[in-house]
Amino acid sequence: MLLGAFNAHPYYVRMSNMNKVLLIFLCISLFAYYLKLDKSPQLEPVHIKMQKDDNQNTNTNKPSVRFHDVAGLDEVKEELAEIIDFIKAPHKYHKMGAKIPKGILFYGPPGTGKTLLAQALAGETDSSFFPTSGSEFVEKYVGVGAKRVRSLFEKAKKGAPSVIFIDEIDAIGAKRTTESNNEKDQTLNQLLIEMDGFHSEQTIIVVGATNRLDLLDEALLRPGRFDRHMFIGNPDLHAREEILHVHTKNKPIDENVNIKELAKRTHGMSGAHLSNIANEAAILAVRNNKKSIGITEFSEAIEKVIAGLQRKNAVILDKEKQKVSYHEAGHALMGKILNTDLISRVSIIPRGEALGYVMYCPEEDRYLKTTAELKNKIKVLLGGRCAEQLIFKEISTGASDDLKKANAIAYQMVCDYGMSNLHNRVFEPSLVKNCYPMIDKEIENIIDECYEDALQHLTNNLDLLSTVAHKLYEKETLSGEEFQMLVQSNYSTIT
Ligand SMILES: Nc1ncnc2c1ncn2[C@@H]1O[C@H](COP(=O)(O)OP(=O)(O)OP(=O)(O)O)[C@@H](O)[C@H]1O
Ligand SMILES: [Zn+2]
């Protein structure tokens, strides 16, 4: 066409060959300049990367993993059952005008089965599974991450019903700061736009996973986005047994191998550690020219993992396990004796920084508390240390967080609520410094009084304390009901 135009115009006809060459060169340069404007050199890698991404995600799979492959985590599976029903029969909910949840957040320590659960969610609902990681979206070039998010959602819409899994979601969803990172902010914004954008008729569930829920931006956690949060913790004794069963199912195991015993010896380990132990033991059996995996191989594999954990200071020694059992039993029993909040779970499975925990049923909203109620709260908090002192005749660092909380309540009683011997006086922060010795004395009085009282209660119920602690040591987790039953059967002795 270009040549045709040349021939038709008399001016061009009269051009010398040299000029023609120059003109063609000029046209090529202009065309190249136009291309450069369209795609700035900075964005060139985007094109290449996106193509790579497209290829990566074309083999969208429908996982064969099912819930029975995920051992333990019964409460989480129960919660997910509702979501499964949403995905399988969305019309039922649409008819009622109910919206299908869009985002679920799994949080907890590494290797506890978050990815596996997301796969099982897709498997159970015959959904397409799009696994990705937050770090895959983090790029130097502005706009790249956002473009990838867009493309991911487009594919998920095409393959719906879909489960998108974003591991390490904190890599893009961490709290935004004043020193904003343009690329990260744009990526997060795009994710929020996509989540707000798809209708509930398009069944797409986005599952995010993180080890640190506290790092995430509030915007991500708002209703309609990642509004369902599920804690995926390390397995307790029973769950460890189940996980070991799952991972030894297809392996030839010696008859004398007792899985329950192995579960007892792997306190504090994650599902990933247990799967690793089963695999290591199998490899050792091959190396030892055995026909089946014996206790020697399992023991060696456990030692290996423990050695690794010891290096990271993450292994809990048996003596510590005993102490934590008494400590948590102390809290729980004080709660029961003083009839404070209802206990829903007592556990010696480490969670975050804590080596054990007592969980209470959600309190009803109450805005007024009496002096006695606040003191009871302090006594429950001090119950852990009291139990340690009573049984082991020494105290440990395990009560640090309890002490902080107990002191904070006592401080408020003195400075904010006028609940001390200083009567109805309150102390503004600016006054606290001047009156500190006086305030400190009052805090000391409250804490000492509560400590003595808690110690007395636990001394009076020493047998019950031991019963609860032993049960906790043995089972590692007691449900609220189990705890109540245990106390009930010894209730006549409670004082
Ligand atoms: N509850 C479980 N039941 C069976 N196997 C489990 C369980 N938890 C973990 N595993 C095993 O550990 C492996 C790693 O688990 P997974 O990748 O799901 O952990 P994760 O919580 O996603 O970890 P990370 O936070 O490090 O991404 C799984 O492939 C599985 O073999
Ligand atoms: Zn405690």
Automatic annotation (TrEMBL):
<keyword id="KW-1133">Transmembrane helix</keyword>
<dbReference type="GO" id="GO:0006508">
    <property type="term" value="P:proteolysis"/>
</dbReference>
<dbReference type="InterPro" id="IPR003593">
    <property type="entry name" value="AAA+_ATPase"/>
</dbReference>
<keyword id="KW-0812">Transmembrane</keyword>
<dbReference type="GO" id="GO:0016887">
    <property type="term" value="F:ATP hydrolysis activity"/>
</dbReference>
<dbReference type="InterPro" id="IPR003959">
    <property type="entry name" value="ATPase_AAA_core"/>
</dbReference>
<comment type="subunit">
    <text>Homohexamer.</text>
</comment>
<dbReference type="Pfam" id="PF01434">
    <property type="entry name" value="Peptidase_M41"/>
</dbReference>
<feature type="domain" description="AAA+ ATPase">
    <location>
        <begin position="100"/>
        <end position="236"/>
    </location>
</feature>
<keyword id="KW-0132">Cell division</keyword>
<dbReference type="InterPro" id="IPR000642">
    <property type="entry name" value="Peptidase_M41"/>
</dbReference>
<keyword id="KW-0479">Metal-binding</keyword>
<keyword id="KW-0547">Nucleotide-binding</keyword>
<dbReference type="InterPro" id="IPR037219">
    <property type="entry name" value="Peptidase_M41-like"/>
</dbReference>
<dbReference type="InterPro" id="IPR003960">
    <property type="entry name" value="ATPase_AAA_CS"/>
</dbReference>
<feature type="binding site">
    <location>
        <position position="402"/>
    </location>
    <ligand>
        <name>Zn(2+)</name>
    </ligand>
</feature>
<dbReference type="GO" id="GO:0004222">
    <property type="term" value="F:metalloendopeptidase activity"/>
</dbReference>
<dbReference type="InterPro" id="IPR027417">
    <property type="entry name" value="P-loop_NTPase"/>
</dbReference>
<keyword id="KW-0645">Protease</keyword>
<keyword id="KW-0472">Membrane</keyword>
<dbReference type="GO" id="GO:0008270">
    <property type="term" value="F:zinc ion binding"/>
</dbReference>
<feature type="binding site">
    <location>
        <position position="327"/>
    </location>
    <ligand>
        <name>Zn(2+)</name>
    </ligand>
</feature>
<feature type="active site">
    <location>
        <position position="328"/>
    </location>
</feature>
<keyword id="KW-0482">Metalloprotease</keyword>
<feature type="binding site">
    <location>
        <position position="331"/>
    </location>
    <ligand>
        <name>Zn(2+)</name>
    </ligand>
</feature>
<dbReference type="GO" id="GO:0051301">
    <property type="term" value="P:cell division"/>
</dbReference>
<keyword id="KW-1003">Cell membrane</keyword>
<feature type="binding site">
    <location>
        <begin position="108"/>
        <end position="115"/>
    </location>
    <ligand>
        <name>ATP</name>
    </ligand>
</feature>
<dbReference type="GO" id="GO:0004176">
    <property type="term" value="F:ATP-dependent peptidase activity"/>
</dbReference>
<keyword id="KW-0378">Hydrolase</keyword>
<keyword id="KW-0131">Cell cycle</keyword>
<protein>
    <recommendedName>
        <fullName>ATP-dependent zinc metalloprotease FtsH</fullName>
        <ecNumber>3.4.24.-</ecNumber>
    </recommendedName>
</protein>
<comment type="similarity">
    <text>In the C-terminal section; belongs to the peptidase M41 family.</text>
</comment>
<keyword id="KW-0067">ATP-binding</keyword>
<dbReference type="GO" id="GO:0030163">
    <property type="term" value="P:protein catabolic process"/>
</dbReference>
<dbReference type="InterPro" id="IPR005936">
    <property type="entry name" value="FtsH"/>
</dbReference>
<dbReference type="GO" id="GO:0005886">
    <property type="term" value="C:plasma membrane"/>
</dbReference>
<comment type="function">
    <text>Acts as a processive, ATP-dependent zinc metallopeptidase for both cytoplasmic and membrane proteins. Plays a role in the quality control of integral membrane proteins.</text>
</comment>
<dbReference type="Pfam" id="PF17862">
    <property type="entry name" value="AAA_lid_3"/>
</dbReference>
<dbReference type="InterPro" id="IPR041569">
    <property type="entry name" value="AAA_lid_3"/>
</dbReference>
<comment type="similarity">
    <text>In the central section; belongs to the AAA ATPase family.</text>
</comment>
<dbReference type="GO" id="GO:0005524">
    <property type="term" value="F:ATP binding"/>
</dbReference>
